[in-house]
Automatic annotation (TrEMBL):
This is Pyridoxal-dependent decarboxylase. It comes from the Bacteria. Its cofactor is pyridoxal 5'-phosphate. The lineage of its organism: Bacteria, Pseudomonadati, Pseudomonadota, Gammaproteobacteria, Lysobacterales. One of its GO terms (molecular function) is carboxy-lyase activity. Residues 529-633 form the L-tyrosine decarboxylase C-terminal domain. Keywords: Lyase, Pyridoxal phosphate. PROSITE patterns: DDC_GAD_HDC_YDC.
């Protein structure tokens, strides 16, 4: 047992704490489950070939059995082999995400069910743009959306409105963009209805009110409008639909729309300063402009609810409309969790005062942590129950945030992050699918009487609703099958994030012991307690008071932890990453607290560096504590880091 782990917790060699389920989930750091993976891949490849042969068994083979003897065939095969070998050789320089020595970015091993589902689906090559091209996997994508909706507490019964809807995207970036797109469509639609002067539907009195109905009010209006339209004669139906379409922001463009509605300004999006840069991309892509993305100050890396309150009040006074407020459930840099509960409370209060906007949660990283908070029957687990087996997790504000996910309007979750699935799998969820009608590319089809009846039938034409066109059905198969094998509750999938949280807690304790060990060479601290599974360490060489010198020290440490294409991988003992602590994210008091802990002098006004470079560790690898061999890679890491600190201090000494 490592001497410097002071608190009780799972230890290497602790057989009782060992989760045998996890043993079967991955190929493994050593490729331990290679035989299982190989059997499955070969089995389903053969299965695919039988399927080809049985399509029309009367059709003879089109490629002669002796084709392989022809010179062209052999030359092609030789070329192909050579290139494949080169590729395979080159890939040996890949980043070893599978290794417990990799604690850098948000990547790890792949779950076997998803990996195999993806490989087995690839030769069928389904295109989830529509059911015509993917009769099977489009349904799986819609089901995967419902699985994720259940995980976050959204209504998920397609037989009853409101029901959530979710689809996959290439990643969190596009899911965030989809959230912006949907929020804008919903916000502007009531304004278009007013402009078209549709009779027989009660409409808001003025443009400001129409623009501030909020997502629930606007969705209700979409429903009423569709019902009204359905009751018209075919001629009237066509005419009114065209008239309303002609007033929509998507048709007129931002310039014309806002010129036609001088009461309205281009709306803002509020996001915390730690928000991912995909929000900036989304604002540019949608044409709202990066300036309309307003970054909210934080306190201790979490959105400051008081600052949010005063911003909302200022918007009301200035009649500045808001499109959306974004909360982050698991920040990319620190794994911290915003007060989603305070965010939805603030939305409800603002709505009551006439300022409507959507709440979106960017849970690209933290989404799957929700499994820890769910019972198999879908109900929410009380905090005390979730906390069993952990040292500190979940902090009350983390539990409250997880519970409040159900009250948000839309959510981004990345199956290719904490879902341990291959890349190309993000997901967008909205709480009430009826809003999606506004995104339909051929509105004809959706609004027409002959629109497919029923939830599943409608979304088989996914291409109408998603930002992409053609997209892999293999991803959808991987996500769906994984969620079936490991249902999204604490008893099943939740055992994975539980392991990451245990690792993070062990890492946190080991980091504190490490700080004691290296006191002669450097001061070190964990700048803020982790909310989830990312842990950062701030360092400063002993006796130094200058931030720039401390940052140079951290960068030199990181030089030993980063991927260097010029060096063999095996040269690296561990992989870590860096990030920066900024006063805007910590608040002045928080920044001061950390500078004090490190013995650093604050940056003088406008002079020198005011941000602090820190080491960042993502603890998602399930094998950081190897109970089979009694090895803690966490302890090995700190031994290694202590050695680096000593070497650097001596070199500078
Ligand atoms: C990773 C991440 C994104 C972007 O997701 P991609 O899948 O890389 O496009 C957005 N937001 C957060 C919080 C993230 O962690």
């Amino acid at each position: 047992m490592p001497a410097h782990t002071t608190e009780p917790g799972p230890q290497p060699g602790d057989a009782a704490a060992r989760d045998r389920l996890l043993d079967a989930c991955f190929l493994g750091p050593y490729g331990e489950n290679d035989a299982l993976l190989e059997r499955l891949v070969v089995e389903f490849l053969r299965d695919h070939v039988y399927w080809r042969r049985n399509f029309h068994p009367e059709d003879p083979p089109a490629i002669a059995t002796d084709a392989a003897f022809a010179p062209d065939y052999r030359a092609f095969e030789a070329r192909m082999r050579r290139e494949l070998h080169q590729l395979s050789a080159a890939l040996k320089k890949s980043v070893p995400f599978h290794s417990p020595r990799y604690i850098g970015h948000m990547a790890s091993d792949l779950l076997l069910p998803g990996l195999v589902a993806q490989i087995l689906t690839l030769p069928y090559n389904p295109n989830n743009v529509s059911e015509d091209a993917a009769p099977v996997t489009v349904d799986l994508e819609v089901e995967a959306g419902l699985q994720l909706a259940r995980m976050v507490g959204y209504p998920h019964d397609p037989e009853r409105d409101p029901c959530a809807f979710g689809h996959l995207t290439s990643g969190g970036t596009l899911a965030n963009y989809q959230a912006l797109r949907l929020a804008l469509a919903l916000k502007a639609f009531p304004v278009a209805l007013r402009a078209a002067q549709v009779p027989g539907i009660a409409l808001p009195e003025d443009d400001w009110q129409a623009f501030n109905l909020g997502p629930a009010g606007a969705t209700a209006l979409v429903v009423r409008w569709k019902a009204w339209l359905a009751a018209q004669t075919p001629r009237e139906h066509r005419a009114w639909k065209a008239r309303v379409e002609g007033e929509r922001i998507e048709r007129r463009g931002l310039v014309d729309f806002f010129a036609a509605h001088p009461q309205l300004k281009v709306p803002w999006v509020l996001a915390p300063v730690t928000a991912h840069y995909s929000w900036s991309k989304g604002m540019k892509l949608l044409g709202l402009g990066r300036d309309q993305l307003r970054l909210m100050p934080e306190r201790e890396m979490r959105m400051d609810a008081d600052a949010l309150g005063s911003t909302l009040a200022a918007c009301e006074r200035a009649r500045q409309p808001l499109l959306m407020a974004v909360g982050v459930f698991g920040t990319t840099e620190f794994g911290t969790v915003d007060p989603i509960d305070a965010l939805v409370d603030a939305r409800d209060a603002a709505q009551a005062r006439g300022l409507g906007f959507s709440v979106h949660v960017d849970a690209a990283w933290g989404g799957y942590l929700s499994t820890l908070f769910r019972n198999p029957d879908g109900s929410l687990r009380p905090r005390a129950e979730v906390a069993q087996g952990f040292r500190q997790f979940p902090q009350p504000h983390v539990h409250a945030a997880a519970a409040a996910l159900a009250r948000t309007d839309s959510i981004t979750i990345d199956p290719h992050k904490l879902g341990y699935l291959p890349y190309g799998a993000g997901a967008f969820l909205c709480r009430d699918h009826r809003a999606m009608a506004l995104l339909a590319e051929s509105a004809d089809y959706v609004f027409h009487d002959q629109a497919p009846r029923g939830y599943r039938a409608r979304y088989r034409n996914l291409g109408q609703f998603i930002p992409e066109g053609s997209k892999p059905g293999a991803n959808a198969a991987a996500v769906y099958v994984t969620h079936k094998v490991l249902p999204l509750d604490h008893a099943n999938f939740g055992r994975l994030p539980a392991q990451t949280v245990l690792s993070a807690e062990a890492f946190h304790a080991a980091a504190q012991a490490f700080a004691e060990r290296i006191r002669a060479q450097a001061r070190a601290c964990v700048p803020f307690p982790p909310d989830s599974n990312l842990v950062c360490i701030a360092l400063n060489p002993a006796g130094n008071r200058d931030i720039a010198t401390a940052n140079a020290f951290a960068r030199r440490l990181h030089d030993r932890l980063r991927v260097d294409p010029g060096l063999p991988l095996q040269d690296r003992s561990f992989f870590g990453s860096v990030t920066t602590l900024r006063p805007q994210a910590l608040g002045p008091a928080g920044m001061q607290r950390i500078l004090d802990a490190l013995g650093l002098a604050p940056a003088s006004d406008g002079e020198g560096e005011d941000h602090l470079v820190i080491l960042r560790h993502t603890l998602m690898n399930p094998y950081l504590i190897d109970r089979e061999n009694g090895i803690s890679y966490i302890d090995l890491y700190f031994d290694f880091l202590a050695g680096c600190v000593r070497a650097l201090a001596e070199a500078d000494g």
